[in-house]
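Hi X.,

You mentioned you wanted examples for the new student's onboarding notes, showing what a folding record looks like when two proteins sit in one file. Here is a clean example. The first protein comes first, with its sequence line followed by its structure tokens.
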Amino acid sequence: MSQTKIDVGMISATGTASSSTVLKGNGTWGSGSPLEFVSSTTASDSASVALTGIDDSADTWMVLIEGVNVAEDAKEPWIRTSNDTSSHSYDSGGSDYAWVFNSAYGASTTSYNKFETGDSKIQMGQDANYPGNDATSAWSAKIFIHNPSVTTYHTILTFDFSMQGTSQESHRTFGTGQRKAAEAVTAVQFLMSSGNFDTGKFSLFKIKHA
């Protein structure tokens, strides 16, 4: 028996049909999953990488970072945020952020922790927890941005960061950062304390609760 394909344009449904959407039971085109890909960018000798488009369509947003190689040895990975809706600037005042992290690394059995109650960035590591810049070294991370559109309290970010260190030992750093302003976060920026990202992929996802 022959079969005839139906042109999706003939289906009456809200939303946009594409190769990344499915027709859901409520008559809308969507991802069909609570985890929805938003955008990605690949670093190439980049001073910083920004991901925009964060809005009130999800309560939790996630950034996955894979295979980052850095230009300079022994520098700190940083996060900054923006509340602009179009041309983004990233807040860098001396008391715009607070953060805390805990680390463990292969050269020592001792964990390491650090915190700041007022800073110009969210910091994901410090001596001796630095990523190396050897050709075979890379770092990856997972960052959650919690309730970024809510303006009644400060936006919280949590991060889990794995790397090869300056001597190619294994490191892991996990912690929490806080944007110290009761305003919406619409974009996030990643950079090093000095030097560029030679390579690395940065991807933004939204996680829906329903």
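Then the second protein repeats the pattern, sequence line and then tokens:
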Amino acid sequence: MRNSIGLAVIAAIAFLARTGSVTGDDKEKEHGSDAGHVLVKADDVKWMDGPPGLPAGAKIAVLAGDPSKPGPYVLRAKMPDKYKVPPHWHPTTENVTVLSGTLHMGKGEKFDPQAAEPVTAGGFASMPKGMRHFAYTSGETIIQVHGMGPFEINYVNPEDDPRKK
């Protein structure tokens, strides 16, 4: 495969050297189409109530993709002060960037605030699929979550699942 890529690059260079220019159509093929381009300004983020799988009080905004379907997604979650997400896990890797506030994150099957690490604005965490973890906030906290869908949340203790209350 590496050789075929190398040959394709050489052929493209030879073609451009002969023609001396790239047309608009060629530029689109070379640089890709803008189909699927997403630009969301801060004032245009549309917050809605969090899904039933999260404890009440969170707001979410889907910025790109569809977290319920296979494929890449980006979403934001806004959580109030002292918001708690009990120990849970996901069948896909979860990537979290803290945009504001403080998200305390801990590993394991028991909610233990003493074992949690504070992640402040600009901090990042990645939990591999299946990793048991929990979180809580200090102050209103906004995070951005991205990964490959479908996004699912499975609680370690079924009694913690808000969908069952």
